[in-house]
Design brief:
The protein is of the alpha/beta class and 227 residues long. The chain has one domain: Alpha-Beta Horseshoe (Leucine-rich repeat, LRR (right-handed beta-alpha superhelix)), CATH 3.80.10. It is built from four helices and nine strands. The protein has a five-stranded parallel β-sheet. The protein is elongated, with a radius of gyration of 21 Å. The protein starts with 5 loop residues before the first strand and ends in a 15-residue tail after the last helix. Pfam families: LRR_5. InterPro entries: LRR_5, LRR_dom_sf, Surface_bspA-like.
Length: 227
C-alpha cells in the first residue's frame, strides 16, 4: 500500500489470505482494520503513530510486530487473541501502552526489543560502565518478566503482559534520566574543573567539553495526538 497514511476501520477485516503488512508511510491504523486476518504473519510499520482498538485482534498467525520511533499509542485490545505473537519492537515512550487488555491471550509474547537509535547512543555515552550495565540490565529484564506474566484469558481481564511492558518502560526511562543527570553533574563538577586546571578556559569550552556531552534526546511522556 505505497503512499497510504491511514487504514480505515474494517478496511481488511477477515482478509484470511493476507500474510504480510509493510507500509512505509502508514501512520494510523483504525479500529478493527486488520481484525481476523488469520494468515497475517508479520507487521513492519516504521511510520505508524497510532494503533486503534482491536486493530489486529484475532490475527492468530501473527508472530512478529515491528514499529519505529514514531509510535505514540497502542489502544485497547489491539493485539487481543494474537495467540502466536512472540516478539514486538517498540520505542521507549511513557503512556504508549494505553490499556491492560492490549495483549489478552498473547501467551507466547516473550520478547520486547527497543527501536535502535538515540536511546542506545545515550546509554553508550554514559560516563561510568556500571551505569551502562545497570541500564542495559533493566532493558533486558522485560525478556525475563514476560515469559511468566499472565496474558489474561478474556477481554476485560487484567493483562499482566501489557502492565509489565508499561512498568518496564517507566523504569528504564527513570534510570536513563537519573544517570543522564549524574553524568552531567560529573561533567560539571569534576571533569570540567580538572580540565580547566590544565587548559585555558577558551580551549576547554570550544574544543573539549562538546565531546564530553551526552547526545541530545527528548524523552516523551505521552499525551494526546492529533488525528
Amino acid at each position: 500500500m505505497p503512499g497510504v497514511e491511514v487504514v480505515e476501520r474494517f478496511a481488511f477485516i477477515n482478509c484470511k489470505a493476507l500474510t504480510d503488512v509493510e507500509c512505509g508511510k502508514l501512520e494510523i491504523i483504525r479500529e478493527l482494520a486488520f481484525s481476523g486476518c488469520e494468515s497475517l504473519r508479520s507487521i513492519d510499520l516504521p511510520s505508524a503513530r497510532i494503533v486503534e482498538g482491536k486493530a489486529f485482534n484475532y490475527c492468530e498467525a501473527l508472530t512478529d510486530v515491528k514499529f519505529d520511533s514514531k509510535l505514540d499509542r497502542i489502544e485497547e485490545e489491539a493485539f487481543c487473541y494474537c495467540t502466536a505473537l512472540e516478539r514486538i519492537t517498540i520505542p521507549l515512550k511513557d503512556d504508549m501502552i494505553t490499556a491492560d487488555d492490549i495483549f489478552i491471550r498473547c501467551d507466547n509474547l516473550k520478547h520486547v526489543d527497543l527501536v535502535e537509535g538515540a536511546i542506545h547512543k545515550i546509554i553508550a555515552a554514559l560516563q561510568l560502565e556500571e551505569w551502562r550495565n545497570d541500564v542495559n540490565e533493566e532493558i533486558d529484564s522485560i525478556n525475563q518478566i514476560l515469559p511468566i506474566a499472565s496474558a489474561g484469558r478474556w477481554v476485560y481481564d487484567v493483562g499482566d503482559k501489557a502492565r509489565a511492558i508499561r512498568t518496564w518502560i517507566r523504569s528504564v526511562l527513570g534510570k536513563i534520566i537519573h544517570y543522564q543527570a549524574e553524568h552531567q553533574r560529573l561533567l560539571d563538577e569534576d571533569i570540567a574543573t580538572s580540565l580547566q586546571l590544565a587548559l585555558s578556559q577558551d580551549i576547554v569550552m570550544n574544543n573539549v567539553l562538546p565531546f564530553l556531552e551526552l547526545p541530545s534526546y527528548t524523552f516523551e511522556v505521552g499525551g494526546d495526538q492529533e488525528e
